[in-house]
Amino acid sequence: MDSKIEILSTxxxxxxxxxxxxxxxxxxxxxxxxxxxxxxxxxxxxSKAIFTIYRT
Length: 56
Prior knowledge:
By secondary structure, this protein is of the alpha+beta class. It has one domain (6-55). Helices cover 21% and strands 43% of the residues. It is built from 1 helix and 3 strands, in the order βαββ. InterPro entries: UCP036698. This is YpmA family protein.
């Protein structure tokens, strides 16, 4: 079984402590639509976060 993950969109946004709640909510709600969401702290600017939308 070959599983590919496709990046649909990425955006850099201001980091907020509760952003992970939105990402968790989206992942739980839309996983049946083969969508996955990611959030990572920007390694160059700790006041920014990278939000990514994937298709599985």
